[in-house]
Amino acid sequence: MLSHLLILAQTAAPAAEPAASGISKITRDFGISWPFILAQILNFSIVAFLLWRFAFKPVLATLDERQKKIASGLQYADEMKAKLEAAQQESVASAKRAQVEAAKIIDEARKSAKEFLDKQTQESAAKASEILVKAQQVIELEKKKMLAEARTEIARLVVATTQKVLSRELSDADRSRYNESAARELNNV
Questions:
Q1: Contact 39, 2 (CB under 8 A)
Q2: What pTM does this model have?
Q3: Cα 18 to the center of its chain, rounded Å
């Protein structure tokens, strides 16, 4: 198509020379041919239109789409940054709440331990008192038993001594009477 336009421009060139001498001299000095210029302008316009329509317009649309994606990505990044900051603040607040809870639990544990210790101390003191009372009772019973045994032994010894002193044999009735008499004397002491 371009070649047809060039041929057409060459054949029409001698007839289309302008009448003005100043313009014709410039066109001759610089080698400007109006039909070629018009054909070049027409070809440039067609190529520019085609480039605009099929190359620049899709590229610009792609660039616009990418700019939108970048803008939305930046907006998303800003939102995520804000959410991260909020999450960090929530984490710090949660850690503070956990620390307060831990302090309360520790205080309660200390209080419970002290109450338990006091209770155990009281129970131990009560058990010790009970054991002491029982031990005193056992000691008292042992003392009474020992005294009874000692009285019996002393009475026997008194009778034996008396028998030796009197150097005579006592009858069972005399022995019983001396034992009872010695036992009464010992009980009175």
A1: yes
A2: 0.38
A3: 94
Amino acid in position 175: R
55, 62 in Cβ contact below 8 A? Answer: no
165 close to 134: Cβ distance less than 8 angstroms: no
Task: Take residue 16 and report the two structure tokens written for it.
Answer: 């289309």
In tens, the pLDDT along 1-38 reads 555 555 555 555 454 444 457 777 887 888 888 888 89
Query: C-alpha distances in angstroms, 156 versus 40, 145, 146, 164, 182?
Result: 163, 16, 15, 12, 9
Comparing CA positions, the residue from 73, 2, 78 lying closest to residue 40 is 2
The SS3 assignment for 10 reads: helix
What value does the mean pLDDT take over residues 105-120? Answer: 92
